Amino acid sequence: xxxxxxxxxxxxxxxxxxxxxxxxxxxxxxxxxxxxxxxxxxxxxxxxxxxxxxxxxxxxxxxxxxxxxxxxxxxxxxxxxxxxxxxxxxxxxxxxxxxxxxxxxxxxxxxxxxxxxxxxxxxxxxxxxxxxxxxxxxxxxxxxxxxxxxxxxxxxxxxxxxxxxxxxxxxxxxxxxxxxxxxxxxxxxxxxxxxxxxxxxxxxxxxxxxxxxxxxxxxxxxxxxxxxxxxxxxxxxxxxxxxxxxxxxxxxxxxxxxxxxxxxxxxxxxxxxxxxxxxxxxxxxxxxxxxxxxxxxxxxxxxxxxxxxxxxxxxxxxxxxxxxxxxxxxxxxxxxxxxxxxxxxxxxxxxxxxxxxxxxxxxxxxxxxxxxxxxxxxxxxxxxxxxxxxxxxxxxxxxxxxxxxxx
Length: 407
Known about the structure:
The chain is of the alpha+beta class and 407 residues long. Helix content is 37%, strand content 23%.
């Protein structure tokens, strides 16, 4: 085995084709976090993309606004999704380069080969256009660029590629591998981040198999799976991170379908075990997902109450959150009512029991009807019938506590 160590933290692990193992590179994690914003593509003649994130510090009672601006000049274009593949190919060549990250030498043939593109004229034009977009795009991070050396968020401004010389694509009328090399210079914040080790593993075979937005999702999830084998996101927040914005033409239903589709791509290639989009209440959905090779039941602290929720279809991460945020007593009260009254005594059919339980536990207006034994000797107060919607089922609770499904 070749144990030669590369001179840069952006290390590429290549193994023999006989072993049938993938090529692994290191992905810079700031770009992994915001790839769906930087490379999502512009609308018509758009020259500026703005992403904002509001954070509240409860200790100091202060609120900060973090901001990322992606801009280009009037005569240039903003990056498009394929440009992230070109940048990853550049970083792959940088890892193999003996000159390190200061100045990266390349031929256009080498980059096309790394991308898996053809060697025709169209591919050369696509590559050159992409590199031009990367070199003309300016990124402004306002308290969003994480410095691994300083262990804090910082502000920074730079172009994705600082300088570039293309070299020749032809020699004696033919495109050849040993053509005159070009070179490019990466911005110092990106170089420093890589040198500080703020990188993660990324499989290039996944990049070649996935659609552009599925790559955004793959890079984002892969960055955060170190925290837990299972992750949970608000649907709209996750969608905005992977370049799927809510617009007049992009309804909530359409967003849900698109995000679900990208998650299923990651399941197909074997990266995820599941990817679920669950309705919490009207207009609000949560995404829960678990990476391959993990047991979600072991990845979270599962107690008796959580286990009962999981049996009814609540995800392990969601079950732990429900108990932590609402307390065991509240969760047990709703569970007992659901298991004894709703399912057994009234034989109510619930299409999504996990969603029903999540909504009922979190809803402060959901009060468990009192039993007759609990009101012995007391005059019952008339209760106005209530109609509430839980996970697509209209649950009707009358003054006697009986539950019906209205469709």
